């Protein structure tokens, strides 16, 4: 049934209905093309959103001191809050559900960079002083060389640094083993102990250098002040409870009004992730919705055309039956035609769609366009192949009703029908 | 070869039933050449279609080549049509987008005969009907008589036991009709069974036996036979 001869007959009928076949094919082409484009754009959006997240553990809290917004207990509004080691001690003592607790200091205003040197080579980097357990909280950071800072580094105030890949690339000549190299920060010599990659802020978090807090304070001063506190809850607890308890304790310790929401800023990664996940789900749902509509439109279009084909060829089908064509010999070629048209047009749409997405991605890269909301549009190849498979089976499905109708045509009626 | 007993055929819905065949008894022996005549609407085509398994019947018995025909599945009917029966129609019914040779070869396609053998046999039958050199002609390049010859070649290419023709000369002039009838006689002489539905007395006269349908029944068995 699916012989070369059968194929030739199908190609023949397709050739003789060029416009009609072309229009159907275009419908299918357009459907899958749009599906691929949407999918690519959606992926770009998702990539954009997820690249904003650093390698932060999902249950981590980041607590920033700010400025009070209302007077309380005899204190004026607009008072700067400052966290210190004693806050950390208090948290450790009074909140049992803390699993890890650490702090972070930066140079100047948050994240502003300074020049660091390796021999005659220089690079810009943000330098951070972090307490013990910091890398138990930022535990998803990718270690490329060496090791992160440890407890002994902290206790002994070692002059050791954990540097980001972007710093290492700028500072060290290619091929140079970074471990043990001495770099200069504000004239102080620091030994490189490890290199990391952090995808946060589209990789800008890899432009950092982490130092033990005491070493940092030796270089930059800063007294007792801590830039921010960061925590993780114990396994049997959750970040929401921990956030509430810690914020309450800190408010109490710093005489902040309970209703003052601005004095302490808590970033709860879990909550952000939850919101993002909801967004992801909505985007994905939309894409599926559109995809489903596209496929349905494709099925209906092809099915309609095949019905017209069958009606036009009623007499021919009648004659073939009179000559001994069984139901299979009638159904087979019609199904094959439907699948061929759908498959080829769908494949073409797939190729053009993927090509366009790749082109856009290439332009983004080569023009250095950086947009936080749209990063690396790409096609999930599995989804594309799945779409094509679904399209082929839709072709089958679309051809099925018309083909069965053709198989039911009575040859007597068929040959009488057009005779007049 | 063909054995019909008390065949009844109705058309239409239960409410508005048209009793077309009202008990046809007909035996046709192997190698006979039979003409079916009768006025328009008397049920000639209906009878031929039942014989040719293109249509079913409502009551009665039908045996084709010793096999009882009863509620055949479509695929079995198709196989029987393909192997046992050849059809020739008034309006030729050649597929317009296939050339003469391909039209003749088509029934063999449904027997899964290979292309080369199919074309060789089709060519042989085209030669038999005198169109050996017109294999590549498309149907619209052929005259009515030539088209009917191609159709006859197509009907014979599977070497069926029975050739059924529904007004095969209805669309042809008298000279061409003569030629086609000569061809049928030749087919008959090779031992085939032929059933030809016709209005034309001279066509009927060239058959061995005539059956006249009248109001859904066979009218005059007494007048049937002529000497050939
Ligand atoms: N599918 C059908 N539905 C309803 N009535 C039908 C159908 N086919 C045939 N008939 C009726 O059955 C009767 C016999 O039709 P049939 O075609 O067998 O006649 P015929 O003898 O071949 O006539 P003609 O010489 O005009 O071809 C006619 O009255 C016709 O109207
Ligand atoms: Mg008729």
- Count, helices of chain B: 7
Helix content of chain A: 40-55%
Q: Which radius of gyration of chain A do the C-alpha atoms yield?
A: 33 Å
What overall geometry of chain B do the principal axes of the alpha carbons give? globular
Low-confidence stretches of chain B: none
Bound molecules: adenosine-5'-triphosphate, magnesium ion
Helix-strand category of chain B: alpha/beta
Strand content of chain B: 25-35%
String of helices and strands of chain A: HHEEHEEEHEHEHEEEHEEHEHHHHH
Which structural class matches the secondary elements of chain A? alpha+beta
Give the quaternary arrangement of the chains: heterodimer
Please give the domain count of chain A.
Answer: 2
Mean of residue pLDDT values of chain B: 90
Major sheet strand order of chain B: 6-7-8-3-9-10
Query: What's the total count of β strands of chain B?
Result: 10
Largest sheet of chain A: 6 strands, mixed, barrel
Residue windows where pLDDT falls under 50 for at least 5 positions of chain A: none
What is the makeup of the main sheet of chain B? Answer: 6 strands, mixed
Across the major sheet of chain A, the strand order is 4-5-10-7-9-8
């Amino acid at each position: 049934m699916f012989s070369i001869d059968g194929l030739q007959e199908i190609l023949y009928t397709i050739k003789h209905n060029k416009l009609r076949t072309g229009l159907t094919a275009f419908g299918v082409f357009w459907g899958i093309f749009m599906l691929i484009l949407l999918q690519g754009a959606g992926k770009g959006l998702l990539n954009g959103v997820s690249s904003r997240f650093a390698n932060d553990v999902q249950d981590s809290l980041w607590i920033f001191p700010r400025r009070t917004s209302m007077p309380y207990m005899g204190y004026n509004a607009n008072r700067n809050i400052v966290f210190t080691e004693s806050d950390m001690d208090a948290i450790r003592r009074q909140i049992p559900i803390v699993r890890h607790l650490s702090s972070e200091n930066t140079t100047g205003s948050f994240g502003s960079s300074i020049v660091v040197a390796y021999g005659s080579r220089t690079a810009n980097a943000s330098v951070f002083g972090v307490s013990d357990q910091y890398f138990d909280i930022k535990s998803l950071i990718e270690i490329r060389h060496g090791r992160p800072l440890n407890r002994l580094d902290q206790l002994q105030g070692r002059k050791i640094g954990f540097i980001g890949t972007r710093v290492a690339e700028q500072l060290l000549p290619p091929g140079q083993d970074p471990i043990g190299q001495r770099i200069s920060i504000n004239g102080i010599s620091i030994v490189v102990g490890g290199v990391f990659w952090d995808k946060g802020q589209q990789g800008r978090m890899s432009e950092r250098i982490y130092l033990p807090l005491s070493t940092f304070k030796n270089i930059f001063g800063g007294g007792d002040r801590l830039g921010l506190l960061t925590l993780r809850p114990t396994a049997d607890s959750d970040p929401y409870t921990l956030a509430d308890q810690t914020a309450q304790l800190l408010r109490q310790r710093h005489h902040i009004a309970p209703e003052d929401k601005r004095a302490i800023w808590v970033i709860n990664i879990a909550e952000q992730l939850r919101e993002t996940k909801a967004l992801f789900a909505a985007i994905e749902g939309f894409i599926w919705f559109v995809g489903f509509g596209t496929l349905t439109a494709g099925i209906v279009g092809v099915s309609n055309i095949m019905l017209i084909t069958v009606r036009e060829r009623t007499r021919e089908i009648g004659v073939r039956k009179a000559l001994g064509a069984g139901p299979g010999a009638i159904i087979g070629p019609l199904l094959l035609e439907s699948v061929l048209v759908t498959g080829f047009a769908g494949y073409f749409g797939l190729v053009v769609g993927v090509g366009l997405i790749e082109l856009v991605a290439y332009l983004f890269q080569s023009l250095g366009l950086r947009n936080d909301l749209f990063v690396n549009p790409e096609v999930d190849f599995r989804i594309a192949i799945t779409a094509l498979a679904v399209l082929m089976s839709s072709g089958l499905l679309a051809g099925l009703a018309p083909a069965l109708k053709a198989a039911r045509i009575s040859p007597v009626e068929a040959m009488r029908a057009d005779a007049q | 070869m063909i054995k019909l007993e008390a065949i009844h055929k109705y058309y239409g819905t239960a409410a508005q039933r048209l009793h077309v065949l009202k008990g046809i008894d007909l035996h046709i022996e192997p190698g006979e050449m039979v003409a079916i005549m009768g006025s328009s609407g008397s049920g000639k085509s209906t009878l031929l279609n039942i014989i040719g398994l293109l249509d079913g019947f409502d009551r009665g018995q039908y045996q084709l080549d010793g096999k009882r025909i009863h509620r055949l599945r479509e695929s079995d009917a198709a196989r029987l049509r393909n192997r046992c029966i050849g059809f020739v129609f008034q309006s030729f019914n050649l597929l317009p987008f296939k050339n003469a040779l391909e039209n003749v070869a088509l029934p063999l396609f449904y027997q899964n005969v290979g292309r080369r053998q199919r074309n060789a046999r089709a060519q042989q039958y085209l030669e038999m009907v005198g169109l050996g050199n017109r294999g590549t002609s498309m149907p619209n390049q052929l005259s009515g008589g030539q088209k009917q010859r191609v159709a006859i070649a197509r009907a014979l290419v599977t070497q069926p036991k029975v050739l059924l023709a529904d007004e095969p000369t209805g669309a042809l002039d008298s000279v061409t009709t003569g030629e086609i009838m000569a061809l049928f006689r030749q087919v008959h002489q090779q031992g085939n069974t032929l059933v030809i539905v016709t209005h034309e007395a001279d066509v009927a006269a060239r058959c061995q036996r005539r059956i006249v349908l009248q109001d859904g029944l066979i009218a005059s068995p007494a007048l049937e036979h002529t000497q050939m």
